[in-house]
Amino acid sequence: MPKEITLPLTAIEQCRLKECERTITDGERNFLEVAKALVEIRDKRLYRKDAKTFDEYVKKRWFKSSNWAFKMIKAAVVVEALPDNLCNAVPKKERVVRELSKVPEELRAAVIEKVVQNGEPVTSTTLKKAAAVIVPAKATKEEVVTDEFGWPIPPDAIPTWNRRQEVQDLLTQISRIKSVLEKAREENDALYMSELQWQTAWAAAKDLHWQIAHAKPAAVCLFCGGWAKTIKCAQCDGRGLISDKYWAHSQHPEMKQLKAMRLKEITKLKEKTK
After folding, report:
1. Does some domain include residue 149?
2. Domains in the chain, number
3. Are 129 and 196 members of one domain?
4. pLDDT of 11
5. Cβ of 72: how many Cβ atoms within 10 Å?
6. pLDDT tens digit sequence for 117-151
7. Which long-range contacts (C-beta less than 8 Å, at least 24 apart) are formed by 9-17?
């Protein structure tokens, strides 16, 4: 297996890394800016001079686990999805937003407004109290749409997820073409075999099936968590979902760790629902 070539940071990338790290150092009171800086370092691999992976970079540079970084990024997504007039009402503290993230997305604005109307500061405690009033019991019991691994799919990605059958129908048609070609060869059917370049046709059908399979979503994107519209994810190209091909074969340096973290979280979710 050829050794992966790691390109050195350009002068511009070095400047961006310093700016991002300065933001992280100075951003204790505003995790949103910290989260954006972490995303840029991760997605542009600005860490590659001193670390092989984003996880290693976070541990070496910030003496924290990558779980800290991903929590910050996830919380930032929750805040940025709020209406503009409510973003400033939420303290820029990850633990407060973590409580808000437990509320169904469509009811988060109402919960914040309830706290404000009560004349109370927006804290984890007041959000939890307001949610108990605003969120109907059925909202917590509604069936959650999950991907093939059991991970909840955010609203942003649902429309694309619901079109999976379109891709499957196309894959089925291509499979039928392959079956016809294989049967024709077995039976030496003159209709197909007299002038057809069988091997070329069969290989083309096989390759087309492989390529189209990448269009069928299988899992929520490991990089943006399905909120690609908010953080402009380059890995899933804005759809918030990845195929099983990407899941199994992507060579991104963070894939192994991200998959392990996702599967661990899915196990926790299943244990809670038992």
Report:
1. no
2. 3
3. no
4. 92
5. 23
6. 888 988 889 998 988 888 775 444 456 789 999 99
7. 9/46, 9/48, 9/49, 13/44, 13/46, 16/40, 16/44, 16/46, 17/41, 17/46, 17/47, 17/49
- Tell me how far apart the alpha carbons of residues 269 and 221 are, in angstroms, rounded to a whole number: 18
- pLDDT mean for each 10 residues of the chain (274 residues): 64 93 81 87 89 89 84 82 80 83 85 90 90 69 79 88 94 94 93 91 94 95 80 81 94 87 88 72
Tell me the C-alpha distance between 76 and 31, whole Å. Answer: 7
Check whether residue 266 and residue 172 sit in a common domain. yes
Same domain for 133 and 165, yes or no, is no
Residue-number span of the structural domain to which 20 is assigned? 11-76
**Is position 85 within any domain?**
no
CA angle 103, 108, 113 (to 5 degrees): 130
